[in-house]
Every structure is written in structure tokens, then in C-alpha cells.
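Weekly sync, protein design subgroup
Attendees: M.S., D.O., the rotation student, P.L. (late)

Item 1: inverse folding check
M.S. brought a backbone from last month's batch and wanted to see whether the design step gives back something sensible before we order anything. D.O. pointed out we never logged the input encoding, so this time it goes straight into the notes. C-alpha cells as presented (51 positions):
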């Protein structure tokens, strides 16, 4: 499974397949928090960042 992390409208989003999931993290917060969150929610997934 691939998870893509993207900043959009001031928040971090996770894109899983064709779904965009809003995270509780602001775009000004560190990306490492979002990666940790994504690994906890989707264990074993490959995580990518899209700008």
C-alpha cells in the first residue's frame, strides 16, 4: 500500500488510493509528526511526499 503525504489548504493530507484523508496537523508543523501518524494508521505502508 502506498500513502502519499501532501500539504493542501494549510493542512497535511494523506492520499491513500483515490481517497484524500485530512490529518489533524497544520502545514506549519513538522513532517515527521505526519509520517509517524501515517505509520501508526497504515502499518507497513510505503510513505511518499508530494509537493
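Designed sequence read out in the meeting:
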Amino acid at each position: 500500500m502506498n500513502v502519499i503525504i501532501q500539504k493542501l489548504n494549510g493542512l497535511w493530507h494523506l492520499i491513500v488510493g483515490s481517497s484524500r484523508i485530512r490529518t489533524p496537523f497544520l502545514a506549519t508543523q513538522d513532517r515527521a509528526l505526519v509520517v509517524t501518524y501515517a505509520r501508526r494508521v497504515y502499518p507497513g505502508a510505503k510513505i511518499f511526499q508530494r509537493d
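Discussion: The CA atoms of residues 7 and 27 lie 6 Å apart. The two ends are 20 Å apart (CA to CA).
Action: P.L. to compare against the previous round before Friday.
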